[in-house]
Amino acid sequence: MFSAAVSPPRIATLILITSLATLSLNMFLPSLSNMADTFQADYGLVSLSVAGYLGMTGLLQVIMGPLSDRFGRRPVLLAGLFIFIAASLGCVLATDIWTFLAFRMMQAAIISGAALSPAVVRDMVPEREAASLLGYISMAMAIAPMLAPMFGGVLDELFGWRASFVAFAVMGVMVFTLCWTDLGETNLTPSETFSRQFQAYPELFRSRRFWGYSLCMAFSTGSFYAFLAGAPLVTRALFDMAPGVLGFYMGTITTGFFLGSFLSGRYAKRFGLTTLMIIGRSVACTSLVVGLVLFMGGYVHEISLFGATSLVGLGNGLTMPSSAAGAMSVRPQLAGSASGLAGALTVGGGAILTFMAGILVTEENNAIALLVIMLLSAAAGLAAALYVVCVDRSEQPELAAP
User: Fold this and answer.
1) How far apart are the first and last CA of the chain?
2) Of 234, 275, 236, 179, whose CA–CA distance to 370 is shortest?
3) CA distances from 12 to 72, 113, 141, 183, 321 (A)
4) Are residues 152 and 207 in the same domain?
5) Domain range for residue 254?
6) Confidence check: pLDDT of 250 > 70
7) Are residues 383 and 297 part of one domain?
8) Cβ–Cβ < 8 Å for 31, 152
9) Taking a C-beta distance cutoff of 8 angstroms, is the pair 112, 172 a contact?
């Protein structure tokens, strides 16, 4: 009935599989307390379903990238979806917290969608066009986290927390069917053996461009993770803000990312990768400097904080698609490995910045400490982008501009 696809996928297919990977992280967050009651478990233990899941996605990206270079994108993506569907049903049927957490960690296989969609795009088109398409895919990564908790909360109220995992299974089946019929293999030159593939890795690991692009991604995302960890404490210390209002302001950074991704999708074909990366990093750094100056000058206001951080989101939206396309373009035959490794570095960097913000931001230093941490991360991303420009000019002198 459903014939296997043999042609490259439509962009809508990649957007949907990326959205599912993003939804799976936070859709059930409003249900954590109810889950703790059901399993009679400590809330901190139940929260491992988020932190442990995030760590597992970082590990799997390192594995799935090389697997897709060896066996192709299609089988790895379909296998990840199949495991996700089975794990979602396991979460629905779990009767104790440890069984639930085991299946929840298995759900991390869906990260194949987010990790390999960029590689699929890079297989299909040149690097500038890849950056443009990745910009549009990134828009899904901005919308999904905003809508997912609301959807999960409604499901919990109507049917209980397990309904979210039933929804994961149903969406998984739908996306699996779509990928089966629309996502043909795009890796037309897979590695003949793992040994030959491993022999090519030093070329990737020794590439200064790859590390420049990847670190730009990691530090750009790091400022976002720092914001998520520190902003609630800052608003509690400085502003009398209702939870609903806080949620609105917290969403402004994601709105900025959505807009930046749209602009990247529209203009990436016209400008070089490093041009958009530097513009994005400059917007983020400038906005954070302005925010710092306002706070240090005594202008303590919501706009001083969230106006600056929303522009960080805009800068990230401009930066991320180009830096991802650049990392995969260094060694196109290892695009999957490059995408997986860069993704793992991004998750790891985000975890470190989240930890730093949680430790260093206090009610006494509040906004200034948060903005400084975000600025240092954004500035490191800018330095990485400028480093790529220097490498380009030293290795290819004829390229006089980024």
Assistant:
1) 50
2) 234
3) 20, 13, 13, 11, 17
4) no
5) 202-395
6) yes
7) yes
8) yes
9) no
**What CA–CA distances, in Å, run from 392 to 200, 276, 320?**
21, 15, 19
Kindly report, residue by residue over 158-177, the tens digit of the pLDDT. 898 999 999 999 999 999 99
> Which residues make Cβ contacts (< 8 Å) with residue 198, sequence separation at least 6?
none
Structure token digits, residue 256: 């900025």
300 and 165 fall within a common domain:
no
Write the burial class of residue 78 (CB in 10 Å: 0-12 exposed, 13-18 middle, 19+ buried): middle
Read off the tokens for 166: 């039933």
pLDDT in tens, 25-81: 878 877 878 888 899 988 778 878 877 888 888 888 888 888 888 888 899 999 999
401 within a domain of the structure (yes/no): no
- Rounded to whole angstroms, the Cα distance separating 382 from 368 reads 21
- Cβ pair 91, 152 in contact under 8 A: no
Whole-number Å distance between alpha carbons of 314 and 280? 7
Do 371 and 229 fall within a single domain? yes
The answer to whether residues 282 and 382 touch, using CB atoms and an 8 Å cutoff, is yes
Contact, 192 vs 69, CB < 8 A? no
Q: Is residue 6 part of a domain?
A: no
Q: Tell me the two tokens of residue 288.
A: 């954070």
**Listed residue (37, 180, 191, 165) closest to 89, CA to CA:** 165
Instruction: Give the rounded distance of the alpha carbon of 51 from its chain centre.
Output: 15
pLDDT score for 348: 81
Q: Does 5 map to a domain?
A: no
Domain for residue 197, yes or no? no
CA 384, 388, 389, 391 torsion-angle sign = positive
Q: Which two tokens stand for residue 320?
A: 């991320």
Give the rounded distance of the alpha carbon of 27 from its chain centre: 15
Show Cβ contacts of residue 90 under 8 Å, excluding neighbours closer than 6 positions. 99, 102, 103, 106
CATH number for the domain that contains residue 109: 1.20.1250.20
How many CB atoms within 10 Å of residue 158? 8
d(CA 60, CA 53): 10
Both 40 and 82 in one domain: the answer is yes
Given 181, 211, 228, the domain boundary residue is 181
Work out how many domains the chain is built from and give that number.
2
In contact, 185 and 274? CB cutoff 8 Å: no
Q: Is the CB of residue 116 less than 8 Å from the CB of residue 77?
A: yes
